[in-house]
């Protein structure tokens, strides 16, 4: 890791960019600010950055005062109250009557990166699993109730491609109840902000591309597959001119990964404390999404991964090496500190429940952005996507958990 300071990115030029970004932020209701500090990190692949750096989500639920909210109460399967129930501790139950919650082919805005059935997957059982907490039930997802709750508001997912998958899931969950003339999708901010609009409700469900939360040279929503990542851990000013990241006059200093992660989150938390309207905003932070790159971790042959997997991991409490508990503790510490400063950010701990779902990834069943080589075709393990998730699938449950918190808080 390298820390960048100075170079051609002068104070005057930086202030001009900040002013321009602030003007853009006012129209989008997304405020950005930052400085010229940066950190550089070298990874072997784009997948590695998703796995080891920032697989996180921030969700903004904008609320209007005086709005009467509908309450949905989770039914309890024991004497424990829903407030004491740990929604993240439970098991997966096969349910081919109630699930999937929507059909892949019927979702108007399905992503080819996640449309596993479209790209040849034959085993559809990954769509039929329901998450069952140990001591209570998740409320049934009701698209009409959610849109009514979001009337005149914005639900914004901010993060990387995994976060974008959760956004696509949420759009698909509400898409089917809206007539074609009463919904729309458009992009702005050079493609960084994608907005699904439910016109009748004046509600939007949005995704803002910010893979590392702080400013980085992978902020371009299209051209972000770079071999060497540079992040400015003190900057949340979005999408500064790219040349500053490759400044030959820059000064770099090595920094350990976990420390970089903490520095970035501290910058993010400081920005939230200053800019978030606490009477109108609910904040959620989604924990690390696990990967299934090493089949030996669940007892299969070494050298394999999620390719050809059709069953879940049955071992309760299974934890793969791709999910770093130290990074999760950093998140918890940052959120606890924010709570002490009067700003509550709810953690949606999806890591453990997602660890079991080794069969839920696209594997080879997705759009390939580049033509496959003969070597890849001969070895499907080598290009199987064991990071993202098929839809319908696991991210729908993440959104069911989010739905429960939206109505309970």
Automatic annotation (TrEMBL):
Gene Ontology cellular component annotations, sorted alphabetically: Golgi apparatus; membrane
Taxonomy, superkingdom: Eukaryota
Domain Trichome birefringence-like N-terminal: residue ranges: 84-137
One Gene Ontology molecular-function label: O-acetyltransferase activity
One Pfam match: PC-Esterase
Record's keyword annotation contains Membrane: yes
Residue stretches making up the Trichome birefringence-like C-terminal domain: 240-404
Annotated InterPro entries: TBL, TBL_C, TBL_N
Cell compartments where the protein resides: Membrane
This protein's UniProt keywords: Membrane, Signal-anchor, Transmembrane, Transmembrane helix
Membrane topology note: Single-pass membrane protein
Family named by the database record: Belongs to the PC-esterase family. TBL subfamily.
The protein, known as: Protein trichome birefringence-like 34
Gene this chain is encoded by: TBL34
């Amino acid at each position: 890791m390298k820390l960048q300071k100075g170079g051609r990115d002068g104070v005057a030029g930086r202030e001009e960019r900040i002013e321009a970004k602030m003007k853009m932020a006012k129209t989008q209701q997304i405020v950005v600010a930052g400085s010229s500090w940066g950190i550089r990190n070298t990874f072997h692949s784009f997948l590695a950055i998703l796995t080891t750096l920032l697989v996180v989500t921030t969700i903004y639920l904008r609320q209007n005062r005086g709005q009467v909210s509908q309450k949905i109460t989770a039914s309890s399967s024991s004497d424990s109250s829903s407030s004491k129930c740990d929604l993240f501790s439970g098991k997966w139950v096969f349910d081919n009557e109630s699930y999937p919650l929507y059909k892949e082919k019927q979702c108007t805005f399905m992503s080819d990166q996640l449309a596993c059935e479209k790209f040849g997957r034959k085993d559809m059982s990954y769509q039929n699993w329901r998450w069952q907490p140990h001591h209570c039930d998740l409320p049934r997802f009701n698209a009409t109730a959610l849109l009514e709750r979001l009337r005149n508001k914005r639900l914004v997912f901010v993060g990387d491609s995994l976060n974008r998958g959760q956004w696509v899931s949420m759009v698909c969950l509400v898409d089917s109840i809206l007539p074609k003339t009463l919904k729309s999708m458009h992009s702005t901010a050079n493609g960084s902000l994608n907005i699904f609009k439910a016109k009748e409700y004046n509600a939007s469900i949005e995704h803002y591309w910010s893979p590392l939360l702080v400013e980085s040279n992978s902020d371009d929503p299209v051209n972000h597959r770079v071999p060497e990542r540079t992040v400015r851990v003190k900057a949340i000013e979005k999408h500064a001119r790219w040349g500053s990241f490759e400044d030959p006059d820059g000064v770099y200093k090595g920094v350990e990964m976990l420390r970089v992660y903490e520095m970035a989150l501290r910058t993010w938390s400081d920005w939230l404390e200053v800019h978030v309207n606490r009477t109108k905003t609910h904040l959620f932070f989604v924990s690390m999404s696990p990967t299934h790159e090493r089949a030996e971790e669940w007892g299969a042959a070494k050298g394999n991964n999620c390719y050809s997997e059709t069953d879940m991991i049955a071992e309760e409490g299974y934890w793969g090496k791709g999910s770093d508990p130290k990074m999760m503790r950093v998140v918890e510490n940052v959120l606890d500190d924010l709570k002490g400063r009067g700003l509550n950010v709810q953690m949606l701990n999806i890591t453990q429940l997602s660890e079991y779902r080794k069969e839920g990834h696209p594997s080879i069943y997705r759009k390939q952005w580049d033509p496959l080589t003969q070597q890849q075709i001969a070895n499907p393990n080598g290009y199987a996507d064991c990071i993202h998730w098929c839809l319908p699938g696991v991210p729908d449950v993440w959104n069911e958990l989010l739905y429960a918190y939206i109505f309970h808080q």
